[in-house]
Amino acid sequence: MRIEIPQIFWHGNRDRIMSIDFYPNTNYLVTSGAESENKMYVKLWRIEEVLIDSSNSNQGQLNLQSTQNNPINQNQEDQNNNINNNNFQTLTDPENNSNYRIKPVFECELNGAHISTVNVCRFSPNGKYLATGSDDNTVIIWVQKSRPTTFGSTEEKISWCNYKILRGHSGDVYDLSWNPDSKYLISGSVDNYCMIWNIEKAKCVNRFMDHEHFVQGVSWDPRNKYILTQSSDKSVRFYKNTQSKLEMKFIYINQLKRFEIKNKNNNQNNNLNNNENKINNNNERPEENNKMMIEEEKNKNNNSYNNKKENNQKNILTYHYYFADEDQCSTFVRRSCFSPDGKICLLVSGVMQNPLDKNELDFVVWGVSRKDFSRPKFYIPTLNKSSTCVRFCPLIFHKKKTDSNCPALLDLNYVMVFAIGTNDSVFIYGTDSIQPRYALTNIHYQSITDLAWNGDKMLAISSSDGYISFVSFEKNELGIPFKPEEINWDDEKFKKQYQLYFDVDIKKNVMNNTQNMITDVKIKKKKNINGNNNNANINTDKNNENVEIKNEGGNIINDNNGSENNENKIEDDNNDKSKDDKEIIDKNGNINEIKKNKNENMEIENP
After folding, report:
1. E strands along 354-437, which residues?
2. Beta bridge partners of 145
3. To the nearest 10°, the Cα dihedral for 182, 225, 395, 403?
4. What is the DSSP letter of 407?
5. Which single residue of 20, 29, 518, 562 could bond 462 by disulfide (Cβ 3.0 to 4.6 Å)?
């Protein structure tokens, strides 16, 4: 494993990068963010690994080694004590362990649509679409389009063009998430709204107005049953799909915001002390005044006995919030997500009371089971750093047999790997252990904004400082991934979604300019009297079913006013040979009857 930070300007002069994402099962990376100079807010890159001279292999590389062989300083050790850092790896001084380097190759920019900073970019699971959300309050859907590199060239270059523009938000769009079949999209915005969009119809089918502050994170269940939305109002809300036949319709089912804590009630002792003081004071008064005071206190006590009992019970309960507020977690995004199998979801920006000092709060990532959204099932500490994003590796791995006494995070027959991003660190975990596999600390100057996995080969990390880090893994370093045919448990939805990741082909999703044209029509032309076989060009209109034939000079050769010597024969391979005549509608709508002649014919295919 190695980590590299290419020293290039991804967006402008180190303008902040807000989001990244890998095209499924490829090395194509899309980046989005701010760019003050050229206004290119979305860019597509190809990430390659190249072999370089070993004498210069130390430059720009940071390696990871075991903490057992490389001692760390006392301050970092104190921070890592909360998660028992005896067996995971941390950053050390760079050494020469590999001769490969990351080489980002710029492919194209996606311009002409957004007019402000793009905060999020997400490829659809089937690879057909790319969705981007921006500060200009819009969500744009992009599709691939091929075009020749130069005029007349057979070489084609893939570019992206805007396909749909979704308007409905009145504030910056911060996060997006696709549903498993790539037909619907959910968006979260600073206008406190969440919207579910039908992509083909380009309309909003659900709108949620429950949050009291900015919506900074959304996620769609891979089983297509639940969605979650996270806001800076210190809450996460869950919605359930009612599976309407016409359109998807989600209803609110639960909210994760705060829980009650019972404290010892010291009010009784305080009341006893107050009563003793009152009695002592009353003894100093005259007897008549003492009698009046005693009667008044008895009446008050009798009238307010029930109220005091209720107040004492209320004083016993205090509330603790699951998530940090804006003062505790000053970040643009809170990107939580579901696991690939949909059994759990990880929620970032969590806080909990320190077990040793209840006046202090520890930052954690909460894990919630899909069986019970009312409370977390487990938590993951993040070294007193507020978490901003979490992302699962799209692959699942075989479970290894180890002699370690460390308990597993989840009791599963397989292993899922995920990464957690904080203000300045990234932790990589597996569900087979409560200890992190790797801890990447102090790799960026500003907070981590997004994470993206390229299978089990690479993890990309973006930051507000304008740089992207790449963590490269050796083959089977994270584990031996499952093949789709190896999944033997009864879960058809998961099998289908897992198979889709391997079936995505970037070439199949390209929209060709001529894909709607008739390309199988063959044209046969009779040799004219002058003996010149003029090449013909065909123009077809699928909707109007018109055919127009021109020669090299641009003259229409199937016109009614043409000479009998220029009669042409046009025949489709699928036509019945028993027919003697062929009717063709020309450009002006005239019907031409062209007789057959089986001798001296030439074939011309539609380009």
Report:
1. 361-369, 378-381, 387-398, 414-422, 425-430
2. 159, 511
3. 170
4. P
5. 20
* Stated length of the chain: 607
Q: What is the residue-wise DSSP string for 17-66?
A: EEEEEEPTTSSEEEEEE--TTT---EEEEEEEEEE--GGGTTTTEEEEEE
For the stretch 505-553, pLDDT in tens is: 887 777 654 343 322 333 333 344 444 444 444 444 434 444 444 444 4
In sequence order, the 6+-apart residues with CB closer than 8 A to the CB of 271 are none
Neighbouring CB atoms inside 10 A of 203's CB total 13
Beta-bridged to residue 421, according to DSSP, are 389, 426
User: Is residue 420 within 8 Å of residue 406, measured between CB atoms?
Assistant: no
Count CB neighbours of 534 within 10 A: 15
Answer for the pair 469, 460: CB distance below 8 angstroms, yes or no.
yes
Q: Which residues, listed in sequence order, are joined to residue 489 by a DSSP beta bridge?
A: none
Give tens-digit pLDDT for 175-185.
999 999 999 99
CA distance 46 to 597: 55
| Strand 438-441 versus strand 89-91 pairing type | parallel
d(CA 441, CA 459): 15
Residue for token pair 């750093």: 385
Give the tokens for residue 444: 């960026």
